Task: inverse folding
């Protein structure tokens, strides 16, 4: 059986980061302003700490002004809202990201709604959700993981996805729903599957494009994949790996990669697929946000 092409998310993310770095340098040259990103982390979830460190380091590598606010897990909602109020008014900060999930005593939607939509580089504010859903993607800030997934699809399949059958598994506000909106805007025929979907394997078998965002290790099996389909595996699942030594873990996606590679035309690996693209698109959104706040023209879109 033929082997799928492996989509190199790491390499594509590096090329996006290079483009952002040179655009950011040009902005600094012309206006003396560095795009400013504030990342807020509440609590000490080890996985979140890794991502936040990554975001901070990548922002610095792109020539951004980058600040990280790490708050105790028992920080009050009022104190978090107060910090966001200050970041909203800080002219050196163009993008604000509050790492999710938040501790249970904090109302997530209250926090996300307080972020000024023009600084909402995660694209989670209702204004940005509305713009994306209304088909006005170019004036919105689009959530990073779906945006990065679309870049990978276009680098793999070319710019035209029109008429393709796309199945998105998962309907979260972070990944599934905005991914479906983007694919619909690309004129795909979009199906959104979730935990109540009947006969998921046969729904997936109709897909030219599969985006898996479930959070269940290897739930999507190889024989669900239509021969030649393009598979974007968003899932990041940490599972025990005793073969690597006692107490060790490894990352797997939502797709059984070793099986799917014999059916798909192209597939993203985990790690090294969507993850690095998410961080690259966060940088792209921060630069876009900075230019808009400075009243500068939009640059060529990355997807
Ligand atoms: N690479 C990256 O940059 C990122 C990766 N992720 C990863 O992506 C995955 C999904 O994240 P997220 O969207 O936040 O997760 P959520 O838990 O918010 O959503 C999961 C979705 O999967 C659906 N689902 C759960 N079980 C099944 C099942 N058995 N069959 C079909 N659908 C099912 C749920 O359905 P229902 O709505 O009915 O409950 C839900 O819509 C996770 O592994 C996460 O770590 C997330 C963000 C960024
Ligand atoms: N407000 C908010 N915005 C987010 O975008 C957000 C969030 N909260 N909470 C958590 C999820 C998860 N997420 C990832 C980002 C990068 C990788 C990533 O870089 N992954 C690498 C390496 C992973 C590793 O080695 O641990 C890879 O897949 O190759 C993964 C997952 C962003 N999220």
Result:
């Amino acid at each position: 059986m033929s082997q799928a092409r492996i989509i190199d998310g790491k390499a594509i993310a590096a090329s996006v980061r290079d483009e952002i770095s040179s655009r950011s340098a040009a902005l600094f040259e012309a206006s003396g302003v560095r795009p400013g990103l504030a990342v807020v982390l509440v609590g000490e979830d080890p996985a979140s700490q890794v991502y936040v460190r990554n975001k901070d380091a990548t922002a610095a590598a792109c020539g951004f002004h980058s600040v990280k606010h790490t708050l105790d897990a028992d920080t009050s909602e009022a104190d978090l809202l107060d910090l966001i109020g200050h970041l909203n008014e800080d002219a050196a900060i163009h993008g604000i990201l509050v790492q999710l999930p938040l501790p249970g005593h904090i109302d997530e939607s209250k926090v996300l709604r307080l972020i000024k939509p023009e600084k909402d580089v995660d694209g989670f504010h209702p204004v940005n959700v509305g713009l994306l859903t209304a088909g006005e993607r170019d004036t919105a800030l689009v959530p990073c993981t779906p945006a990065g997934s679309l870049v990978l699809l276009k680098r793999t399949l070319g710019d035209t996805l029109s008429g393709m059958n796309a199945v998105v598994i998962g309907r979260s506000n972070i990944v599934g729903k905005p991914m479906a909106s983007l694919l619909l805007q690309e004129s795909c025929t979009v199906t959104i599957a979730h935990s109540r979907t009947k006969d998921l394997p046969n729904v997936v078998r109709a897909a030219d494009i599969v985006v898996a965002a479930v959070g269940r290790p290897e739930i999507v099996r190889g024989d669900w994949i239509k021969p030649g389909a393009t598979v974007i595996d968003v899932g990041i699942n940490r599972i025990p790996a005793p073969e690597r030594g006692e107490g060790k873990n490894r990352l797997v996606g939502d797709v059984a990669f070793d099986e799917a590679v014999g059916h798909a035309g192209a597939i993203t690996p985990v790690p090294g697929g969507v993850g690095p693209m998410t961080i690259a698109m966060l940088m792209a959104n921060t630069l876009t946000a900075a230019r808009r706040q400075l009243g500068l023209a939009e640059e060529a879109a990355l997807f």
Residues 50-51, 54, 97-100, 122, 144-145, 236, 251, 270-272, 275-276, 278-279 surround 5,10-Methenyltetrahydrofolate (ligand 2) (CB under 6 Å). Residues 144-275 form a domain with the Rossmann fold fold (CATH 3.40.50.720). The mean pLDDT is 96. Residues 9-31 form the longest helix (23 residues).
